Amino acid sequence: MNYHWNWGIFFQTSPDGVHTYLETLLLGTGWTLATALSAWCLALGMGSLVGVIRTTPHLWLVRLGNAYVEVFRNIPLLVQMFLWYFVLPELLPVWAGDWLKQLPDASFYTAVVSLGFYTSARVAEQVRAGILSLARGQGWAALALGLTRTQAYIYVLLPMAYRIILPPLTSEFLNIIKNSAVALTIGLMELTARARAMQEFSFQVFEAFTAATVIYIIINIIVTFGMRWVERRSAVPGFIGAAPAAAATH
Amino acid sequence: MFADFDFEVIVRSLPYLFYDGMTFTLMLTALATCGGIFFGTLLAMMRLSGFAPLSLPAASYVNLMRSVPLVLVIFWFYFLVPFIGQWVTGASQPIQVGAFVSSLVTFTLFEAAYFAEIMRAGIQSIPRGQVGAAQALGMTYLQTMGYIVLPQAFRNMLPVLLTQTIVLFQDTSLVYVLSITDFLGAASKIAQRDGRLVEMYLFAALVYFVISFVASLLVRRLQRRVAIIR
Known about the structure:
The complex is a heterodimer. Chain A is mostly helical. Chain A is about 70% helix and about 0% strand. The radius of gyration of chain B is 21 Å and the shape is flat. The model of chain B has no long low-confidence stretch (mean pLDDT about 90). Chain B has a single domain, classed as MetI-like fold.
């Protein structure tokens, strides 16, 4: 091996003249987490909405929900990001397109929107599976008690469904963190992009990528343990853990 | 809005898009699926072996690959494969490998971790009594796996394996980060050369959508046909 290892590189100043390379990587981690968390809020909101309408008795709503899921699931995330970033501003009226293009941190907002919608289709699948896994009688009982359909969803069906699908939601959340790396293609300086930049300026390829890998693993471990704690706290007494959710993974 | 939409540019670049681009994408998908299922099955068998020197490395490998973004793995292997080649062949310099070999190694090894989890579920779906019965008949471990467990595990998991292949097909678009001419790479090169981003990216999205959607419909049909009624 004629590769020159230099682990001290992390404490040298990066080309921006202010931060060390380690600090640039940590800044990138911040962007990764900010992107993933914002996109997650969008994904959970849209995913729940679409998942719910696919379980209603209205045929057209169900079809609309199905179409939504198929569109966002069958186009690669990278292509979706290009559509939001390059194509959408061209299709809007000129003033709106120019406003979008000149937005500061445009790549951040684009990444959040595209990641959010992409993941929402997967969340919708799981929310639907969670609701359908409940005994049909629960919904009927809620209606018989005089709740409206909306109330039945909010107070009875969804609180149960979310608890059941918590494990697959956890892996979707881990996926959204990992998928945020795709945003480097539209210029978002998140963790992988920072590692790539560090490699280009310092030629220390493997140190840069090792550091990024370690940071991703640490995030993964923290999220996994955090979600296990949430699972334990939110478990419904009388149900066997979250075993039925395994059916929702595909 | 679509007034200056130029269909001409799409028609003009069809040969390049499909002959150069889509061939690369489909070749990469097919070979990486075969390699990924092969290594994934090995990893799953190692992980379930109950023999720590085998199961621990397999579990660590799978967990490592599953916690890192694919883009980062693509970068890793792009720089690592020449060094691995040097180490394997004993050359004095890191050897040059083409874009295709580099991405094939990346996707095979990355997807192996995901296929391993699917195969693990498949192997675990076989009743334990069948393994006991095979051993009672005097079968060795390899015979038990090869004749009894794996054929059923594959059959049970076939829809999931194919769904993962569709995911893999979409994921191959990420070789864009290495400026490789896969389908999306080809579309993006034309888009930038001719200043026709809207047309090319919308067309690329449409092609990916049609292929993935039709494939997933076929998988759903297959799922109903191969389901074993118990």
